[in-house]
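User: Round two. Same drill as before: sequence, then structure, for each protein.

Assistant: Same drill it is. First protein:
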Amino acid sequence: MVLRNKVERTHRVIETEKLIVKNQPVSVLEVGAGDYSFDYLLSKLDSNIRWHKLDFAPPCDLKVDLNVENINLPLENKSYDMIIITQVLEHLLWPQSVLIELHRVLKDDGVLIGSVPNIVSLSYRIKWLFGGIPSCASSGNMPERLSLTAYHNEEKIIAGHVIDFNKKNVKQLLEYASFSEVQFYKTGLFWGCQILPAFLTPITLGSNLLFEAKK
């Protein structure tokens, strides 16, 4: 059994919902949906929508280990017009490999929606300033008492944060995987609770980097 972290309904989640509904997809691949699936939005989308969940452990429709260097997803080319990957890339040793595969299975007019923690958010800058390490900082598969980012099963740690992201390297990573028209959206500042709303927080200071990219 995989023990998962609780996901709060922050402004990051709310703004992601808006992007999904705005694009009105008819076929969705949601990567890493075990923590928090956006499939409750189905009532606001096309009634004939096809929505598949991919993750490293149940609950999901397709079980795939994403932490391999040469990944090959068992999916056909141009299968989906929307791919959602939120709070996943920071757990991957080779995120570029996963993104390249997602680019392959995305339709030509499709959209990728994703998010990652922002290592240079305002709250984390304050933490660094006083000699602390932010809770989202990469910590690998260290024991639970030394890491706030790891998933674990009943036997061992299996998926802590291994990469730290800021806006610049997220954009560079997406462009490396051949995505284009990368746009970022405000998510607000979260520190135990929603301290600042999305509309009051610059993108580069927000707790998360929410992005949309085209094929």
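Second protein:
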Amino acid sequence: MTLQERFDNKWMPEPNSGCWLWLGAYHRQGYGNITVDSRSQLAHRVSWFLHHGFMPDPKIKVCHRCDLPSCVNPDHLFLGSQLDNMRDCFSKGRGTRADHKGEKNVNAILSEEQVLSILDDHRKYREIAAVFGCSPSTIGMIKKGRNWPHVYEQWLQSHEANNRLEAKL
């Protein structure tokens, strides 16, 4: 069986979106996988190869206009750099953005109030982490200003102001 035949047996059209949904094996991030020359390949990259006649350099991404990782419809694919892919992502309102910091970040498990409390806490990192349900390394990153830097800067400025006031008294 040829690669084209194997490929064509592993997708199904989705009538509403026009996507070709991959029915074969999947990569952990939802992308289809197909074996080519005893190596696992991403199905959407193989679709590009089969329909456009060349495999792009590995540094070049085969991106999805439809934003569906399991889609292998060549009309829904375009070539771009990682930067192009991220710009496409952000233009569609997906992904983590600079204005989605702190509590607005979908991955945040702490509030700004909790972060301020962590910054004021002098216990061991593992003890603080147990209270807030996060890892000791997260506590360390907060205390060093690497996580939640906007809150850290605010906290630092307020403590410096308090220290100056205490020095005057």
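The CA atoms of residues 85 and 91 lie 10 Å apart.

User: Perfect.
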